[in-house]
From TrEMBL:
Organism: Hyphopichia burtonii NRRL Y-1933
SUPFAM superfamilies from the UniProt entry: NAD(P)-binding Rossmann-fold domains (SSF51735)
PANTHER family referenced in this protein's UniProt entry, alphabetically: MIOREX COMPLEX COMPONENT 2, NADH-UBIQUINONE OXIDOREDUCTASE 39 KDA SUBUNIT-RELATED
Protein name: NAD(P)-binding protein
Native organism taxonomy: Eukaryota, Fungi, Dikarya, Ascomycota, Saccharomycotina
Pfam families, per database record: Epimerase
GO cellular component term of the entry, any: mitochondrion
Domain of life: Eukaryota
GO BP terms in the entry: ubiquinone biosynthetic process
Domain NAD-dependent epimerase/dehydratase: 5-85
One of the record's GO molecular function terms: protein-containing complex binding
Length: 261
């Protein structure tokens, strides 16, 4: 089988890095999204990816293109069902505006405007199961499915965020003949982000807290170890994904500590 991979969410924050690393490793990379358009960035690897239209909830729009893929990656998720947080996280630092945006996001989506396909259940669980079934229908030889899960619940984020990821892991693990790999990264940052990018500032704060915890307490208190977790880079996650894909004996959960090695 050729080194070819399909990525759903390839134009997203982590998905872009998965595409970039895959191209660097010699993979034929196909990214599926509803727009079918590449991200607006001026980097050489972008032109080497096949950007294709596909609605993950409508397998007929993409399933034929899954045949022959050595792996499929599900890199679609929601931190909050109100997606206003995305604009804030990817912008440059503006303290008052960012607090207002975060507070608005935590209120959740307007019930009158809430789309049943824009929920934790739909995006993080149901879409993964739909995609896995479509892949299994098309690819009979060593199908490998990578699901981007999470290390643990993020403070102040609704329980539905982590619950639906764990439910997806369970559903996928029950798929006969599917080699499932569950990546559990922590808070993510991109090493090339500008210093005043909100996401970079936040992850630096998280990393500082983790370093202070290690200096003062080490790893001796389990409760604190679970509460204070280190960030990891998109590069670390993407590199580990391809290492696991190429290790035919690898399957199951890949914990944060392993991702960061």
């Amino acid at each position: 089988m050729s080194k070819s991979i399909a990525i759903f969410g390839g134009s997203g924050f982590l998905g872009r890095k998965i595409c970039e690393v895959g191209i660097g490793l010699g993979y034929q990379v196909t990214s599926f999204s509803r727009s079918g358009k590449p991200p607006s960035i001026n980097e050489a690897w972008v032109d080497k990816v096949e950007w294709v239209h596909g609605d993950i909830f409508k397998p007929e729009s993409y399933k034929e293109k899954l045949k022959g893929k050595s792996a499929v990656v599900h890199s679609i998720g929601l931190i909050l069902e109100n997606q206003g947080y995305k604009k804030s996280m990817n912008s440059n630092f503006n303290f008052l505006s960012d607090l207002q945006n975060l507070a608005s996001s935590l209120k959740g989506p307007n019930p009158m405007k809430k789309d049943r396909l824009n929920t934790y259940e739909a995006i993080q669980r149901d879409s993964a199961v739909i995609l896995a079934d479509a892949y299994l229908e098309q690819q009979k030889e060593d199908p490998t499915f990578v699901y981007i899960s999470a290390d643990q619940k993020i403070p102040i984020i609704p329980e539905g965020y982590i619950n639906t990821k764990r439910e997806a892991e369970f559903e996928l693990s029950c798929k006969k003949d599917l080699r499932s790999i569950f990546m559990r990264p922590g808070v993510l940052y991109n090493e090339s982000d500008p210093p005043l990018n909100n996401r970079r500032i936040f992850t630096q704060f998280v990393g500082l807290g983790y370093d202070i915890k290690n200096t003062l307490l080490g790893n001796n208190i389990d409760f604190i170890n679970q509460l204070v977790r280190p960030p990891c880079s998109t590069e670390q996650v993407a590199t580990k994904i391809f290492a696991k894909i190429e290790d035919k004996n690898a399957s199951g959960v890949v914990l944060l500590d392993e991702i960061r090695k």
